[in-house]
Amino acid sequence: MQRGKLLIIGFGPGSEQHMTFRAKEAILEADSIIGYSTYVDLIRPLITTQDIVRTGMTEEVSRAQEAVRQAETGKKVAVISSGDSGVYGMAGLVYEVLIQKGWKEEAGVEVEIIPGISAINSCGSLLGAPIMHDACTISLSDHLTPWDLIKKRVDAAAEADFVIALYNPRSGKRTRQIVETQKILLKYRSPDTPVGLVKSAYREREQIVITDLEHMLDHEIGMLTTVIIGNNSTFIYDGKMITPRGYQRKYTLNETEQQLKPHERLKKEAEPWALHGGIEDERQIADRPLSPQVLAEEALSKLVIKTKRLENSRQKGIEFQQEDIFEFAVSPGIANKKITPQQLAALVETVGEGATLEYTPDHLIKVSVKTSNPSEMTENLGNAGFLLLPTGDVVNIKACDFCDGEKADSIPQVELLQQLIGGISVPKQMNIGFNGCGMACYSAPTNDIGIIYRKKGFDLFLGAKTTGRNAHVGQLVAEGLEGGKLVDLVVRIIEDYKDRGLPNERFHKFFKRVQVVEGFYYKEVPEQVVVDMACGD
Length: 537
Ligand code: SF4
Prior knowledge:
binds iron/sulfur cluster; Precorrin-3B C(17)-methyltransferase
């Protein structure tokens, strides 16, 4: 006798265009087709000479048993499920029946599971891109699963911020489950969390509704509806439900840093979580110089403004908190390099044990901390005497300690520079090295911009290559500059770099590409002489 075969087919949402090639092929090659009546009707155009076994909705076990029985007689039997046969479909049930009979793959009937598009995917595609991130499916049918267990799963998924696709949300008799589910979800999510309701996806009577958690029950929900609940980041844009893909929301003092490099793939309109319209957009360096305090305060005022959603939640007394990764840097000051024990203790106490503290080559302590209350944190650190700075692609001013303040002549200029341009966004992170005398013991000329004060005035270096085997110092472009002129000049250079620099372009590359910056011409760096090592290494 010919070896029988079970073809367990998921035929997707119902339209032929959304059925896989293999699913169609398997239906055509089967001797018989077994399925729920409605599903058989959905694949009617593909039925030719195959025998048909149609059963009612709750007769899955008898369908599986009949399929196995027929396959054991040597037939090729197609068992059809809508969506994916392995997601609330027939695949598991058929295996259960086979296992009960002692089936082994080697000698028993052949089994092929043919995947299809499940409702979470088909309905998701009609709503926009609500899945995108960690998601789960939960069937609200307590026909085969105890309701207490379903409730636990809803609770856990809601708390863990999964996007949730609810299958079988309601039927004629089973109406309370979706109401209880909504209540559980509202414990963890804001009432205006986007919710998508899709009925009969890709079928004749398709219906799509985008609503929110508070109002979802005002709409028709039935057995043919899939309910997709957004997570805390999901938003609605132009009638589409979209969940951003990024895993972390990192904020620093003056901007939101997206983890989506290469740069600027997203536009502001598509980043409702971002802190746009901030200092970056408003600031006019020349017209409105900002002190570090003003810069930090403005940034923080934006940072602490939570989304409308969070505000709504709080007003309604809902415990809903989104933890953001807040990144910033602290230092004891521009010229001051000494951190007191009290400051260190305040730092540790403020950021907590869960924070990451990284001491950088730029004489800063970079803090990365999960928090939903960054303003309290920065206020405490400000009170402890720390200078707070943004991180990322910003201007970092690295000054020497001016011989413990003994060589203080040029400190006003470096403090003014910090006030005017410290921490502002530039195409790529850059350092301005500032040393208080010709000893240059803090290596000012090895920074993107180097400044050395000497009795006559300031020397300016541009375009050092700060890293790599061919690292080199910057080009000496001016000597003996008067203090006011130096500050104006450096501010203009930074403005030019901001305007004409390409995303991610380091300053030395920018200088080389544009050739002239503020009247200073780029000069090729002499090639290095390679000397063979006597030892051959
Ligand atoms: S560069 Fe000059 S002023 Fe600065 S710490 Fe060194 S010796 Fe002192």
